[in-house]
Structure formats: C-alpha cells, structure tokens
Write a structure and sequence with these properties.
Structural class of chain A: mainly alpha
Structural class of chain B: mainly alpha
Strand content of chain A: under 5%
Distance between the termini of chain A: 59 Å
Helix content of chain B: over 70%
Low-confidence stretches of chain A: none
Oligomer: heterodimer
Largest sheet of chain B: 2 strands, antiparallel
Number of strands of chain B: 4
Helix content of chain A: over 70%
Mean pLDDT of chain A: 80
Number of strands of chain A: 0
Order of helices and strands of chain A: HHHHHHHHHHHHHH
Strand order of the largest sheet of chain B: 1-4
Radius of gyration of chain B: 21 Å
Low-confidence stretches of chain B: none
Distance between the termini of chain B: 14 Å
Mean pLDDT of chain B: 87
Largest sheet of chain A: none
Radius of gyration of chain A: 21 Å
Strand content of chain B: under 5%
Shape of chain B: globular
Number of domains of chain A: 1
Number of helices of chain A: 14
Chain lengths: ~325, ~350
C-alpha cells in the first residue's frame, strides 16, 4: 500500500474525531431546537463559559476578581485551594442548571410566541452577554484545563497499526476519549428520552407544544430541563475542546462551526447532528489535505459553510430533517 | 400644542404622500440637514469628527443596507462584514488600477461590484429561508475574509497583507489618505449617505419596497397575489449589498485609511450591524440611523466613563461593553421589538395629543 493512502487515511481518521467534537456542540443545538424551536446561538459561548467556570472553580479563582480589584483597589486573585476535578464538574453542572433557570425566567418567558428569528437574535444577545460575563468573572487569559484526561499520541494505536499495515497511525488519545464520551452521552440521552417520564414529556413538547400543554406538561419546566441538559452538553464539549486547545475565546467560535453541521444533518435530528459532524470533520480535513495546498491553505475556515450551502440548495431540510411543509 | 397636522392643508395627492406630512417634522428635518452639512463641519472638532461622526456615518450606511434586506425583505444576513470587505477591496483595486478615477465613482463602483457579488450569494435565498439562510450567508463572511487574506492579487502583493488607500481629491480637496482634513472626509461621507438614504426611503415606499415587505410578511401569500419572489428577493440582496459595499468602501478609504481584512471585516462586524438594526428598529430608515448612533456612541461613552473617569483597565471596560450590548439586545427584543424607531413613533403620538390626551 502506498504511503500516501495511509496518510490520507490518518487525515480522515483525525477528521472523524474532530467531527465528533463538532457533533458534541451540535447536539446541544438540536436538543434546544427540538423542544422550543429556538435556535440557540449561545451554545458555543455556553461551552466556553462552562469550561471557564470549571477551571475557575478547580483552581479556586475569585470570581469577578478584576472588577473588585478595580473598584476597591484590592489585590484578590485566588482563594488558595484546589478542588478535585469531580467536585468541580458537579459544581459547574450546578452553575449551568442555575443558568438554564435564569434564562427561562428572564428571557424565554417574555418571548413566548415570538417569531423564531426574534428568538434567534435574542440568543445572539445572550451569547454576547455571557461572553462578557464569563470573561469578567474569570478573566480572559488563556487557561489550561486539566482534569486528568489522557493526552498525547496514543502509542497503542500507533504500534498496532504499525504491526498490521506497516504504517503507524498518529491518533490523539484525547480525540479517542472524546469519541468515547460522545458515544456515552448519546446513549444516555437516547435512553433518557425513550424510557423516562421527563424524557417522554420532552418528546411530547418537541412534537406539539399546545397538545403537550393540554395534557398537563409544564412547558416552563421542560425548557429549564432542556437548557440544563444543553448546558451539561456544553460543559462536556467545553471540557473536551478546552483540554485540546486551552480555554480561550476561540472556543466559542466552534459554535459557528456547529451551524453547518446542523444544516447538513437537519436541525431536528440527533443522528443528523452526529452524521453531519462526521461529514464536516472528515470533509474539511480531506479538502485541506488535497486541495488546500493548491489554493493557499487554511480552507477549514470556510469549507464547512460552503459545503452546507451547496448541499442546502439541493436538500433544504438537511439529511435527516423533517420535510418542510408550508401553508398559507 | 404645536405638533399638529391641523391647519396644514394638503391640496395635492403629492403633498399628501410626502415623507413628512407634519410641518414641524419637515422643518426639523431640514434643520438637521442644514446643521449636518453647513454647521457641523465648522463647529465639531477633529477628535469628535474622527471618533464619532465618521464611524457613525459609515455604520449608518451599512445599517441602512442591512435594514433593507432584513427589516424590509425579511432575509436575515450574517455576511455583512464579508460584503463590506468586498466593497473595500473593490475600491482598493479600482483606486490602484485607475489612478485617474474620481473617488466618488470609485465608491459607487465598489458598491456595484458588491451588488453583483451579493446577488450571487442571494441565490440560495430562493431555496432556503430563515436560519438556514442566515447560516448560509455566514459562508460569504468566512469565504471572503479567507479569499482576501490568501490571494495576494487582491492586496497587490504587499508584504504585510494590508491595503492602504492612496490620496484622492474631490474638487481639489483631499478626502482620503492620512493628511485629509476630517471635515472634508465627513462632508464626503455625509453626501453619499444623504443620497443613499433618500434612495432607500423612495425605494421602500414604491413598488419595489412593497414587494419586499410582502415577501417579508408571508412569502407564499405574496407569490399568490402576484409578487415575483425571485425578483423581490434578488433585488433586495442586490440593493442591500450595494449599500453595504459603499459602506465598506467608505470604511476603508475614508475612515480607516488602511485595513487588514480579518481585523477590519470579521464576523463581529456582521453582528454589530445586525445589532444596530435590531436596536434601532427593523424596517425603519430612521431606525438604522438611531441604532448606528447608539452603538457608535455607547463604546465611546463607556470608555470615557470607565477608563478615563474611573480609571479601570481597558479590558474590563471591553467585557462590560459586551455585557451591556448583549443585555440591550435582549431588553429591546423583549420590551420594544420594533426598536428605538418605535419609541420615537410613540413619543410623536403622545406629543400630538399633548397637553390634552383623552
């Protein structure tokens, strides 16, 4: 087998694993969209905020330290304790639940029945607010996120593939961990929505708001629930991306990458989010590998969007989306 | 007491349909025009012209363009930054390729180039709508920033990748380049904006604008009553891109002087313009101006208060600014979805009944 083939295979595999990361963010979008028809632009910033909070809690940072220092002239920075990762994760999840509650209370409740595009813009506003808030609370410098996830190139895969094909594939351990976590997450979510009472209520709301209301399902509770789950997914995505490339502002830009993923997979489909993420991940890496050098590189910035754009012209509802039916 | 239409008799249909039917409005309008054209260039100092008035004019042009597309025709676009980049780079290429061309025509031609590009990116709007379209316009945003970054032809193979506007004059007065007087830049930009605003107002109250609004309100119903969606949507994209292209050209040639594409025309600019029209008022010419004014003034104001008066660090002010802008967006969407323009309208209604409301 030619070296070039294995190299492309390695690129594709890495793309597949990046795609898993995209899918993680896209999952949060889909959940919220299905249950409330809100296209939550803030999902990426939620991931950033969750990761920031996690690091902040873990290293015992004083929240709003910079602001307090500026107002009172003090020199606060850290409480001086270190929390174990698991405790920090549980606390961060609690913060995300609180956030979901506040979002429902302060924003969604007042915007019931508005047009979807208005709600979309509200979430853009929320994204800006949360970005400023997160930076103000924990500081905007790049942070290292370390909760004991495996790092580095996996030697097992390299030696195994080296033995089988005569060419060792380089795969990041963290990517494999992310794939495993994503798999678990999807399984748990599916089980939750299929076999629990709340999950059934969630599906009912997704199906028809009014019918769900009329059989006594509390829409507000479901919204808080869904935003909490989305917050938890954001936490997982934030941890994975944060461990990969540090917790910094560019983390929130992966949310933008999740948009073409959704367009490809369809806004309403969980399998669509996964498959779309994988297609985009593999597609952009292979495109960069083959075509990128010819036209100057860094095509990852736009390839996903253009692919989704071309795709949409032929299939406006995405791969797995519900057929769009319009009535006057 | 004074703000009445009583006694202001209209004798022709034309008078009845004019933009400002109330005499006081008309007078106020002309007073503002005179103030802006004749008084402001001599009174306002250079710092204010450069820091507030010029960006306001440029962003108002962009907001006007996006408002035609989003507010009047209902097609959400997140590609404003990318289209502004097209306008800027078109202006740059025209200026360097044809040194003899008047800057006024350079700016207009840059707008035309952007209109053609916008038409191209408007094509998907015939198939997809809503969020899907919004995300599709992101393709334009990222693609153009990448294109102007990676293709050296666009920045004339300059080593830094930056583009710098050469000096150009109108009637012998410099309007671009570092040594141009702020007042001259201001008047040049203002003249273009004035013309464009007049064009926008008249487009929106004519056949074209009504077909846009019909498409916005319900596209299928509009199609049934005989509005051609292809023509309406594509014309909205073209006109809007023209405005945005002109804004991009002015932003680069007159305001910035030199620009680097990722920094000057990033996605944050797309959102900035979108915020302007949400806060100002979707589907309102006045709203575009009010929104642009607020979002240009707000950072200047916050910076003055927090950095200069309170002595805080710049980055704290930047974070707070993000929070305030985001909060404002949500606030307006909840309490006044039609924006500042609607507040102004309500104030006028109240004023007409004052001091004897029923």
């Amino acid at each position: 087998m030619p070296e070039q083939f294995y190299f492309a295979l390695e690129v594709a595999l890495n793309g597949l694993l990046t795609g898993v990361m995209y899918s993680l963010v896209a999952l949060g979008f889909v959940l919220i969209y299905k249950s409330s028809e809100i296209f939550n632009y803030a999902q990426g910033v939620m991931a950033l905020f969750a990761a920031l909070t996690l690091v902040g809690l873990q290293t015992g940072q004083v929240p709003f330290a910079e602001l307090i220092n500026a107002i009172f002239g003090t020199h606060l920075s850290h409480f001086g304790w270190q929390l174990p990762p698991l405790v920090a994760i549980v606390l961060t999840a609690a913060v995300m639940v609180l956030f979901a509650f506040l979002v429902e209370r302060l924003i969604l409740r007042h915007l019931v029945g508005q047009e979807p595009i208005i709600l979309f813009m509200a979430t853009i506003g929320l994204a800006y607010f949360l970005e400023g808030f997160g930076d103000l609370m924990w500081g905007s410098e790049i942070k290292k996120l370390d909760i004991g996830l495996p790092q580095g190139i996996s030697e097992t895969v390299e030696s195994l593939t080296g033995k089988w094909f005569g060419y060792g594939l380089f795969i990041d351990k963290l990517d494999i961990a992310a794939a495993v976590v994503a798999g678990i997450l999807v399984t748990v979510l599916t089980l939750f929505s299929q076999y629990t009472k709340q999950g059934r209520a969630l599906r009912a709301v997704a199906d028809d708001h009014q019918a769900a209301l009329s059989v006594g399902i509390s829409l507000r509770f479901i919204w808080v629930l869904v935003w909490s789950i989305a917050g938890f997914i954001a936490l997982v995505a934030g941890v994975m991306w944060g461990a990969k490339s540090g917790v910094q502002f560019s983390l929130s830009l992966i949310a933008l990458k999740a948009l073409p993923v959704l367009m490809l997979g369809g806004f309403t489909s969980i399998p669509g989010a996964i498959v779309g993420g994988l297609i985009i991940g593999v597609g952009e890496k292979l495109f960069e590998f083959w075509v990128g050098p010819l036209i100057g590189g860094a095509t990852e910035n736009w390839f996903a969007y253009v692919l989704a754009l071309i795709f949409l012209v032929f299939r406006p509802q995405g791969l797995f989306g519900e057929k769009i039916i319009e009535r006057v | 007491m004074f703000y009445r239409e009583a006694g202001d008799f209209k004798t022709t249909y034309r008078e009845d349909m004019q933009t400002f039917p109330i005499r006081l409005d008309r007078r106020a309008y002309w007073m503002i025009v005179v103030l802006a054209f004749v008084v402001a260039p001599f009174v306002v100092n250079d710092y204010w012209t450069n820091a507030v008035l010029l960006p306001f004019l440029v962003w108002a042009t962009a907001a006007l363009g996006l408002n035609l597309l989003t507010g009047y025709c209902g097609q959400v676009s997140l590609g404003t930054g990318g289209f502004m980049a097209v306008g800027a780079f078109a202006a740059y290429k025209l200026m360097t390729a044809f040194p003899g061309m008047n800057i006024f025509f350079v700016v207009l031609l840059a707008g035309v180039v952007t209109a053609v590009v916008g038409l191209l990116f408007g094509l998907p709007s015939l198939r997809i709508k809503g969020f899907y379209l919004a995300v599709a316009t992101l393709a334009a945003q990222f693609f153009f920033v990448w294109l102007f970054n990676k293709m050296p032809w666009f920045y004339n193979y300059s080593a830094s990748g930056q583009i710098t506007a050469p000096e150009r004059t109108i009637f012998g007065i410099l309007v671009t380049g570092p040594s141009a007087a702020p007042a001259a830049k201001y008047l040049f930009t203002l003249t273009i904006l004035f013309g464009l605003a007049w064009l926008a107002r008249n487009l929106t109250r004519g056949r074209t604008g009504r077909s846009w609004m019909a498409i916005r309100d319900m596209d299928i119903a509009a199609e049934i009553i005989g509005v051609n969606p292809l023509r309406a949507k594509l014309s909205a994209f073209a006109v809007s891109s023209f405005f945005i292209g002109v804004a991009g050209a002015l932003f680069f040639t007159v305001y910035l002087g030199s620009a680097e594409v990722t920094e000057a025309f990033g996605i944050d600019k797309s959102f900035l313009v979108l915020f302007m029209i949400i806060i100002g008022g979707l589907g309102s010419i006045l709203g575009s101006f009010l929104g642009a004014a607020l979002l240009v003034l707000l950072p200047v104001f916050l910076k003055n208060v927090m950095v200069d008066i309170l002595g805080w660090e710049t980055y704290i002010a930047a974070h707070l600014e993000l929070m305030i802008v985001g909060g404002l967006i949500i606030f307006f969407l909840i309490y006044e979805p039609h924006g500042l323009a609607q507040l102004w309208r309500l104030a006028k209604e109240k004023l007409r009944l004052w001091p004897f409301p029923y």
